[in-house]
Write a structure and sequence with these properties.
It is built from 7 helices and 6 strands. Helix 1 packs parallel to helix 7. The protein has a single domain, classed as HAD superfamily/HAD-like (Rossmann fold). By secondary structure, it is α/β, with parallel strands linked by helices. The longest helix is centred in the middle third of the chain and has 16 residues.
């Protein structure tokens, strides 16, 4: 039977949003994230990061920088018994052609094929409307908006576009909502 998954935006959702973050030492996890993700993993969800990293396309940093940040995130969370099943990165700038740049569902669909996932039992968590749209475009069970990062501004300025999104304070609250409501 296909597995359910959690697709996480990176900046502003899992880690504090720092303008064009590209140094591992600048990574700061949202408090409580490790335990919350471990609970989801123990409940049978696979974990994926799906992130737009336009700083690469803009020439601010390289994919090697992104890979170093992701290796740091993986190592820090592995020490807390949290394992990511995949990282999907769109390095293009917004004005450049991109197959996977959110709100495209391409990376979620690719993960579903590669990992035998059931997108209709999967969730996406993010701090921007494009994160929610990615989940809607892929047919996820629900899209959750966190108020960390750009989330509060998204709720305030684009609230009329949130449709049936679940709005919560942070990643631990999103994980708790999923565990309480997943069928």
């Amino acid at each position: 039977m296909p597995s359910p998954a959690i697709f996480l935006d990176r900046d502003g959702t899992l880690i504090a949003d720092k303008h064009y973050l590209h140094k591992p030492e600048e990574v700061e996890f949202i408090p409580g994230s490790a335990e919350a993700l471990r609970n989801l993993q123990e409940a049978g969800f696979l974990l994926f990061i799906v992130t737009n990293q336009s700083g690469v396309g803009r020439g601010y940093f390289t994919m090697a920088d992104v890979d170093r940040v992701h290796a740091h995130i993986e190592a820090e969370l592995a020490a807390e018994d949290v394992t990511f099943d995949g990282f999907y990165v769109a390095p293009e700038a917004p004005d450049q052609p991109s197959r996977g740049r959110k709100p495209s569902p391409a990376f979620l669909q690719e993960a579903a094929e590669d990992f035998d996932l059931d997108l209709s039992r999967s969730y996406i968590i993010g701090d921007k409307l494009i994160d929610l749209e990615t989940g809607w475009n892929a047919g996820c069970a629900r899209s959750l908006l966190v108020r960390t990062g750009y989330g509060s501004a998204t709720e305030e300025n684009q609230g009329d576009q949130l449709r049936d999104a679940v709005v919560v304070d942070d990643l631990p609250a999103a994980c708790a909502w999923i565990l309480a409501n997943a069928s």
